[in-house]
Amino acid sequence: MQNAGSGQLGIKVSGWLWGIAVAGTAAVLLVLYTVPVSFQTHRSMEKILFAGWALGPPAWFILQYWAWPPTPAEQERYHLHQGLLKAVWAGVAALLAAMFFGRWPG
């Protein structure tokens, strides 16, 4: 049996985790592009970061729905929240793909 408001808790936890993930990604990108590291280390960090963004959010969506399912009253807010997070996920993944695998002129 689910607790009343469990979806609200899931949304709150999700917001904090996504904030930490975006800040962590920004920090890793800052290190990648400002600190001199070997090419192999640079490529390894890129692969780990991209894999984390490609696999982590879908796993989180499943875990969140399983651990903190929304009540019927919370369904609309839950779906709006998930829609926003999917857009952030897609945007960050596209940016990382362009940065790591794209060919920039010059």
Summarize the model shown.
Helix content is 80%, strand content 0%.
Textual characterization of the structure:
The protein has about 110 residues and is an all-alpha fold. The protein has one domain. The protein is about 80% helix and about 0% strand. The chain has 3 helices and no strands. The protein has helices at about 5-35, 40-65, 75-100. The longest helix is centred in the N-terminal third of the chain and has 29 residues, at about 5-35. It is elongated. The protein starts with 5 loop residues before the first helix and ends in a 5-residue tail after the last helix. The model has no long low-confidence stretch (mean pLDDT about 85).
Identify the notable features of this structure and list them briefly:
single chain; 106 residues; mainly alpha; 80% helix; 0% strand
How do the helices and strands line up, and which of them pair or pack?
Blueprint: H1 6-34, H2 39-67, H3 75-101
Helix pairs in contact: 1-2, 1-3, 2-3
Number of structural domains: 1
Q: Report strand %.
A: under 5%
Query: What is the terminal-to-terminal distance?
Result: 59 Å
Q: What are the low-pLDDT stretches, counting only 5+ consecutive residues below 50?
A: none
Radius of gyration, in angstroms, nearest whole number: 17 Å
Determine the number of helices (DSSP H or I, runs of at least 4 residues).
3
